[in-house]
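R.M. (postdoc): so does anyone remember the format we settled on? I'll just put the structure tokens first.
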């Protein structure tokens, strides 16, 4: 099956949308762009929105050149000093892990993860993707000692707590190991708080495709009552919306679809109700939600994400689920979903890997000339995680390891410039470190590589434990 036909089969949007559209009225394009903006803002404002608005209104051209923003309602004084951003989020693809748990994230014991979503935003192509990960996906979970245990991915958060590890970090490592993705940050949301948020915005409107029926539903799964949601256009309060998104009697794929329906319905309602343009309501919601979210994202990064996200039209947001890439299985006497690797890789490629990297198909050789053991292997893994096909990357030690001060990207073959520039960006190199000729070519020779990456003494240490 061709890649195009595969995409048509598995990526038909849940709400039918023509694959090609005539230009839309300006107000519709603006709505699509603000949907992605809201998606990012709603995810991050719960822990840092008010602070971030102050930051972005005070940091000038040195932070976001040409993108200065002012908010008249913000206070004029008392603004704390801000650190330089960790990196420039507009340069490269950003992958965010979003987890939902039925428990406050700061409780002593971590709960099993109820919802796992990976959001990817690509500033180069102005596209985004939302990938649902089945909670029953059977995976290898790092044990902290260089080995792995097997279990459902939704158990990793709780396993980490029992071992004294950070739960979200272990889930990130688990996804990276099993799916080959690079994840930048995580966000853990208490979905019981999401129920309160839906109530705060006056409920959400959702098109229900199939009847949802509980014989005994409750938030705590103890003392419940019957609950039925009929097909058709339904207005839901927070309690009903949470029940709709948690329903598990059909499939993980259908459940992920319902969860994303609720999220996007809440985004639409947040704008139509005026909350996202009312500073008083934003601050009230921030105060109410700040203890229900756990994240490793620095507050200075959210404004840059928001600036980027508002440039992404809704038709460039792809939603998919790994529920399309699993088979039913059993482990330890309970149901598990087993990944079909080839099919999963097709989904991941469409959402996360820049097609320009795939189309250039550059053969990349990574050589360690830093004198620090393991860097070539670690950067090889970084390249694969960023979308360079694994079979196209080799690594080893440079002939004069330890004696080359500067990291350079040597381009031997024409037509591989995008890959070379991407590698330079990932290494935070200036463009003058990309060389098409020069003395370096005399020292580093390869008969097969289109691009040679020489990791010099100035390169950061990516990871430990690799062999070369």
């Amino acid at each position: 099956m061709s890649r195009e036909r595969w995409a048509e089969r598995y990526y038909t949007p849940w709400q039918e949308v023509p694959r090609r559209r005539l230009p839309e009225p300006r107000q519709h394009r603006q709505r699509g762009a603000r949907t992605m903006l809201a998606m990012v803002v709603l995810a991050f404002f719960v822990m840092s929105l008010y602070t971030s608005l102050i930051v972005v209104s005070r940091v000038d051209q040195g932070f976001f050149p040409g993108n200065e923003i002012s908010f008249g309602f913000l206070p004029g004084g008392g603004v704390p000093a801000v650190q330089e951003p960790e990196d420039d989020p507009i340069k490269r693809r950003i992958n965010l892990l979003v987890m939902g748990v039925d428990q406050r994230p700061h409780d002593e014991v971590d709960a099993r993860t109820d919802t796992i979503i990976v959001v990817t935003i690509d500033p180069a192509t102005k596209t985004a993707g939302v990938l649902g990960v089945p909670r029953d996906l059977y995976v290898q979970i790092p044990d902290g000692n260089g080995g792995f245990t097997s279990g459902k991915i939704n158990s990793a958060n709780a396993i980490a707590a029992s071992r004294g590890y950070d739960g979200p970090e272990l889930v990130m490592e688990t996804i990276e190991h099993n799916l080959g993705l690079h994840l930048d940050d995580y966000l853990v949301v208490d979905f019981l708080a999401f129920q309160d948020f839906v109530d705060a915005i006056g409920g959400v409107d959702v098109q229900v495709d199939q009847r949802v029926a509980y014989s005994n539903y409750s938030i705590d799964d103890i003392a419940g009552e019957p609950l039925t949601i009929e097909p058709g256009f339904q207005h839901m309060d927070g309690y009903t919306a949470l029940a709709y998104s948690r329903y598990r009697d059909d499939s993980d794929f259908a459940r992920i679809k319902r969860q994303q329906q609720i999220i996007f319905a809440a985004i639409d309602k947040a704008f139509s109700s005026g909350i996202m343009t009312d500073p008083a309501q934003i601050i009230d919601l921030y105060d109410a939600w700040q203890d229900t979210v756990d994240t490793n994202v620095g507050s200075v990064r959210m404004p840059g994400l928001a600036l980027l996200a508002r440039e992404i039209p809704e038709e460039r947001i792809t939603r998919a689920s790994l529920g399309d890439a699993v088979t039913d299985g059993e482990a330890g006497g309970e149901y598990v979903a087993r990944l079909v690797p080839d099919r999963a890789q097709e989904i991941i490629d469409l959402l996360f890997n820049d097609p320009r990297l795939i189309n250039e198909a550059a053969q990349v050789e990574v050589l360690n000339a830093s004198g620090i053991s393991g860097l070539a292997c670690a950067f090889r893994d970084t390249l694969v995680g960023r979308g360079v096909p694994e079979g196209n990357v080799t690594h080893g030690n440079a002939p004069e390891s330890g004696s080359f001060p500067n990291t350079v990207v040597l381009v031997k073959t024409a037509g591989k410039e995008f890959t070379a520039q991407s590698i330079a960006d990932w290494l935070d190199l200036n463009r003058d470190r990309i060389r098409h000729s020069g003395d370096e070519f005399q020292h580093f020779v390869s008969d097969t590589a289109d691009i040679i990456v020489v990791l010099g003494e100035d390169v950061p240490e990516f990871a430990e434990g690799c062999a070369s």
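R.M.: ...and that's the designed sequence above, right after the tokens. Also worth knowing: The two ends are 38 Å apart (CA to CA). The first helix runs from residue 3 to 10.
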